């Protein structure tokens, strides 16, 4: 099994870093304009996203369309 890469609001951050909102899982046609970005430390809780279909992903792993 691999490391979890997408996180729901309320999950705990596994590592420190900058996380950004990404569109619906496995949807390559969803582009987000001005996604929220947050800086979290290990163990911090992910905040709510601006849309219930979005998730959090570490910025350097987030796919840019």
TrEMBL record:
Natural source organism: Paenibacillus woosongensis
UniProt region (Disordered), positions on chain: 44-65
InterPro entries the UniProt entry points to: YjzC
Protein name per UniProt: YjzC family protein
Domain of life: Bacteria
Pfam annotation, one family: YjzC
């Amino acid at each position: 099994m691999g490391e979890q890469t997408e996180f729901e609001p309320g999950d705990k951050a596994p590592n420190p870093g900058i996380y950004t909102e990404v569109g619906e899982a496995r949807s390559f046609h969803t582009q987000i304009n001005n996604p929220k970005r947050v800086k979290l430390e290990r163990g911090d809780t992910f905040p709510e996203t601006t849309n219930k279909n979005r998730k959090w992903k570490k910025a350097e792993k987030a796919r840019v369309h």
